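A student in our group prepared the protein record below, which I am reviewing. Here is the record exactly as it was handed to me.
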Amino acid sequence: MTAAPSGVTIRPARPDDEARVARLLALRGITVEEALEQAPRMIAALPVLLLASLPADDAEPTGAGGAAARSAEVDAVAHAAEADDTAAPVALSGAFILPGDLEDDRPERWMVSGLIVDPGARSRGIGRALLAAVGAAVQEIDPGEDLFSVVETANHASVAAHLAAGFQEAAHVDGYAGLVFDGDALLMRLPGTTV
């Protein structure tokens, strides 16, 4: 497994992380209300859901350092989530088992559920470390199984993070498992390890 950058802590999300997960989900452009509804379901449903945190005094939330400003609602969720934090969550990712589809000739497989890194925490290797940790968590649950992810090719930072975490390009796709992309996307694969 790739080591986390200095000062970064990666841990499983817990039920009391609802506000922290919601703050990160809201960075994807959904409303705060939607994020607050989705967070507890996500924590309960995903077999792997990890949070990456920086020490509170090292975290640079979105809006700082010239990054695009967040809405006041997202700030309110962030303050509620971080009021008692000694480490500020800056990223999340997880994995789930995607059922197979005989019609598409797709077997059941582990899939990355997404990768969200707060813009104020990017370019620190956090995404790479988080993806590697998700891969390691999948190996603990299901040794030897590959982990797949679909990434839009235009998202160069995400493609680079996946490659740095050990993922390999498996195929170019314009849609996958019912998802349709605006442009070209990559199906990426992190090979499972056998002991």
Notes: The chain has five helices and seven strands. Strands lie at 9-12, 48-55, 87-98, 109-117, 147-152, 168-176, 179-190.
